[in-house]
Amino acid sequence: MKILVTGGAGFIGSQVTKQLLDKGCEVVVYDNLSRGSRELVDPRANFVEGSVLDKEELTKALQRVDAVIHMAAFIIVPESVEKPDLYWENNVGGTKVLLEAMRQVGVNKIVFSSSATVYGDPDKLPLTERSPIKKAANPYGQTKIEMEKLIQTESDKGGLESAIILRYFNPYGPNELHQPETHAIPNFIKSALAKKSIPLYWKGEQVRDFIYVEDLATAHIAPLSLEGFQIFNVGTGEGTKVIDIVKKIFDLVGYEVPIQDLGDRPGDVSANYTSAEKIEKGLGWKAEVSLEEGLRRTIEFFKSLH
Predict the structure, then answer these.
(1) Partners of 200 in the beta sheet?
(2) CB 219 within 8 Å of CB 280
(3) Which candidate in 41, 106, 109, 233 could, as Cys together with 162 as Cys, close a disulfide (CB 3.0–4.6 Å)?
(4) pTM for this entry
(5) Catalytically annotated residues
(6) Residue 201 gets which letter from DSSP?
(7) By the 8 A CB rule, do 245 and 201 touch?
(8) What is the mean pLDDT of residues 23-51?
(9) 44 vs 40, 61, 230, CA distance in Å?
């Protein structure tokens, strides 16, 4: 099977690429490297440097491809607030161009990396795939809602034989090297290793569903054999307080550092975690790496950079 992975040079995309190659798939990584890193791309993959806004380049890269895993998106929430038009053009515009190119070439299978941000501030937990979609708290989340709509519309019109939406919860793990880094776990680990204070909002009382990147990547493989339009939440099914993550990091590094209380942060939801029932039954998938083991591996990765 030949798969095109858009955004395949990113934190999650590079891990998905590796797992596809390990399964014997042929993989084309399509990435403009504005946010990804060429060094993360598995040497077994065919790498194409290109933008999802470039239909001509996309149609070339899509030749003889069986399915697309679409992961190319800008993801920095504060930046999306400052530059909503940039996020709309890249994320929503890029998805529109990709779908047009797929239609032109005759590729009719897509797995899309969406986000739990589409649920907004939940009325009820755990979240399920039937939980209501709400107006997002930020432009990044809103682009994910619009990208999902484009894919569902294309599916409804008969343009896609298979359209699978994966709504991620909170990924973490090795190779997370965003610039700037806005995610909690890598920032906590880097601060702890540098023996600097850890910046913490809400005193760490927020609850999140943290999923190790290798587990998350595995969830992209099984949907390639599905048909129709389907949605799966991808998380562990367990919520963990952010302050408990900090305490686990302290246990693993063997010392504590001061905590910098940043107070409240507008736009944050107090708790967000999923039921994993649908994905376990529908795909036979479940998270395998414990939070402690995942944090240990992530700490070792960041230690290795120095």
Answers:
(1) 261
(2) no
(3) 109
(4) 0.95
(5) 140
(6) S
(7) no
(8) 96
(9) 12, 16, 30
